[in-house]
Amino acid sequence: MRGSTVPFVSKLNHLSLFATKILRNQHQTYTSKSCYSSSSLSFRNEPTVLPTALTCSANSKCILLGSQIHAQIIKLGLSNDVFSQNNIIKMYTKCGLLAHGLKVFDEMPMKNLVSWTLVISGVVQTGEFEMGLGVYLEMRRTGLVPNEFALGCVRKGCAALGNKELGECIRCFVLKVGMETNPFVGSSILNMYAKLGDIEDAERVFECMDNRVGCWNAMTGGYAQCCYGFESLMAFSLMQYKGIPMDAFTFINALKGCLIVGNLNFGRQIHGLIIQSEVAFSTAVMNSLMDMYFKNGGELYALKVFDRLQNYILEYCPNCVTFSILFRFYGEALDLVSRLQFYCLALQFGISDEISVTTSLINMFSKCGAMRKACLVFKRVPFKSLRTCNEMISDYNLNYCHTEGLNLFCNLKGMGLEANER
After folding, report:
1. Which residue has the higher pLDDT, 23 or 52?
2. Which of 26, 42, 234, 249 has its CA 20 to 30 A from that of 388?
3. Neighbours of 350 (CB within 10 A)
4. How many CB atoms lie within 10 A of CB 147?
5. What is the Cα 71 distance to its own chain's centre?
6. What is the tally of helices (H) and strands (E) in the chain?
7. Contact 217, 233 (CB under 8 A)
8. How far, in Å, CA of 94 to CA of 203, rounded?
9. Coil, strand or helix: which one is 111?
């Protein structure tokens, strides 16, 4: 492993300090959102009530409800109950409040494998890959054996940091404990090699895997990850020839292959297969279709896909990724009035505050020189993430508003954010 593990241990030992630093910046934001209230909840003595309520708040990303349930758990004297604390950690990390989850974890007197796995997953998902690896190493020192989910998160961290040495160590550990036949573990190893650009090792892992659709998806996605578009499409065609069932991930990976080779006609053929499949109205698949059409010059086809989504809105509403793609690509061809209409549509769906939508909106307005509207979008964001600030600074510079961009950069620390290379 590259470097010393001392920074990792230091981060783990100061989780509460890390949490306290962020809590103030997020408290007013999330408590001001309109959410469900737990005042109407009846917390009986049934063991499933609290976990179900926490799951509800996590799925709806309603931190107000979740924090009220957390308070109720404390009142009921369940602060030392591992099961309850694990559910609280899961709720906070799903709501995007990693600091709160880390604070709960840090204060737990007893931690089990699920506790460690939830923290590793939450840390890695927020991009704190080094901290994720550090938490993993600390878990191993406790004598716990990681499950397939913890290993998958760690391999994701290894790939993001380009740490192939640690990735190889984890693969050896997988072989040692006999988990190499687990499809989830095998697929995550394959994905790690693909993200590290080692497609040969990825192919060797694939040769030892069975014919499950998840394994094939990992290989087609691995080819696309390494920009082997033709090979990705060949694997997709081979799946069809062998009669292997295809799911949403299969088509998404194949569409990525079409993007790489720039083959609009093949993409339309895949579109035909999608229509015949069970994922014809999957939002994720439709998003990939629109992305493929936009980038290959098929804007009219992309708009038809979006119209079809609208027709089935009661079954499958467009999500934040849908609008993010529309704002970034279709927005370049629109006048300001049409862009505002799309903005109103995002408001109607209630997703205008999502980070991906907000950054795309700022980008869309700045491309037509409407920096005043871009600034209004930025100012109304309740919680300004580093990604949103980076977009705003970049667009200030693109529109020659260098002073405003520099002022925002200087204010990052006051907002509780650390500047990165962007």
Report:
1. 52
2. 249
3. 10
4. 16
5. 28
6. 24, 0
7. no
8. 33
9. coil
Contact between residue 65 and residue 73 where contact means Cβ atoms under 8 Å apart? no
The token pair that represents 101 in the structure block = 């989850």
Other Cβ atoms within 10 Å of 229 Cβ, number: 20
Q: What six digits make up the tokens of 85?
A: 């604390």
Q: Would you say 318 and 311 are in contact if contact means Cβ atoms under 8 Å apart?
A: no
Give residue 384's region: left, alpha or beta (phi > 0; psi -120 to 50): beta
Spatial distance between the Cα atoms of 17 and 346, rounded to a whole number of angstroms = 37
- Return the number of other C-beta atoms located less than 10 Å from residue 276's C-beta: 7
Alpha-carbon distance values, 72 to 48, 88, 103 (Å) = 14, 11, 17
Indicate whether 3 pLDDT > 70: no
- 184, burial (CB in 10 Å: exposed 0-12, middle 13-18, buried 19+): middle
**What is the pLDDT confidence band of residue 329, given thresholds at 50, 70 and 90?**
low
Amino acid identity for residue 177 in this structure:
V
Specify whether the CB–CB gap between 285 and 253 falls below 8 A: no
pLDDT value at residue 2 = 39
- Are 54 and 88 contacting, i.e. CB atoms less than 8 angstroms apart? yes
| 245 vs 21, more confident | 245
Which of helix, strand or coil describes residue 72? helix
Structure tokens at 171: 């693969």
Query: For the chain, how many residues are written?
Result: 422
Q: For residue 397, what are the contacts with CB-CB under 8 A and spacing of at least 6? A: 405
Three-class SS state of 402:
helix
Alpha helices (H) in 32-126, listed in sequence order: 49-59, 63-75, 82-94, 98-107, 113-125
